[in-house]
């Protein structure tokens, strides 16, 4: 059975691409490095001259330094994979294992090209999902801060005017004035509390496995967005298994890498359980089914791949299918969310305007 120490060791050993890079060298830099190396080696250029070309062509001084260190290690008799392994911040164990497999099989250029394509696809999926989930959240946060600003700084200017009327104000106006008084008195406290809660959640998610697992479980259960996140996880999981199988890596190592790349603790723990099941002789499709996290379609296609000996092809088909599903879901979300968000903004702003101007209009009609 899996335990917390085994799970944490697994995470430390193989960080997901895109999460372990420094701000000085980005994921796109590593992807471009892979693509350029694939092109030059495929054209028959030796490794060392290829590194010189990359150093001359890049404007990123940190990447220049990294490439120089790799080149020096290779000239000192290290293999390409061994040289990369010395830089785990930029090249995780999966990357190094794939390069090692490419070197040993004489297909280094092909493997580098596969890695670059794989990285590009994962990055595209991750970016699309983040953008789709961030858009409504960003708009709603902006609406909240704008409304808070109006309540704290604009509405108070009208309160003096309303008090000069000497008449009873409408219920809506009285409610808005009450909210304005609350925000004037406790606005900064509420803002500080909000920022503190968000910061605390982020910190706890990074430091507590149990808390992180609960947050990831909640994210998967979110209406619409949970389904989108699940599709992206399955796409990345399947794509990672496919590329590891194509390189001939052991199944346990493949499952470990596939679990890590999901970026979700629920699926990472499920990957550990799948490894345990495989170790006891269970077929992959049954191990996936027993987690309760993979749709019947995925399980059936994996079963077909296992029976026909075409598991790599079937896994790529699964990834392709879910990437298409992600695009379709995001398009649908954009169509549905935009009018919904605009309606919310309209209601909020309209309510504030009514609360402010109805008393003025009433006074004007009396006079």
TrEMBL record:
Which keywords has UniProt assigned to this entry? Answer: Cell inner membrane, Cell membrane, Membrane, Transmembrane, Transmembrane helix, Transport
Provide the transmembrane region boundaries: 134-162, 182-203, 340-361
Record's bilayer topology term: Multi-pass membrane protein
UniProt main location, coarse:
membrane
Among the GO biological process terms of this entry, one is: protein secretion by the type II secretion system
Q: Which residues form the Type II secretion system protein GspF domain?
A: 33-156, 237-359
Q: Name one GO cellular component term.
A: plasma membrane
Stored Pfam families: T2SSF
Q: Which domain of life is it from?
A: Bacteria
Any idea where this protein resides? Cell inner membrane
Give the family, as the similarity comment puts it. Answer: Belongs to the GSP F family.
Q: What is this protein called?
A: Type 4 fimbrial assembly protein pilC
The taxonomy runs: Bacteria, Pseudomonadati, Pseudomonadota, Gammaproteobacteria, Legionellales
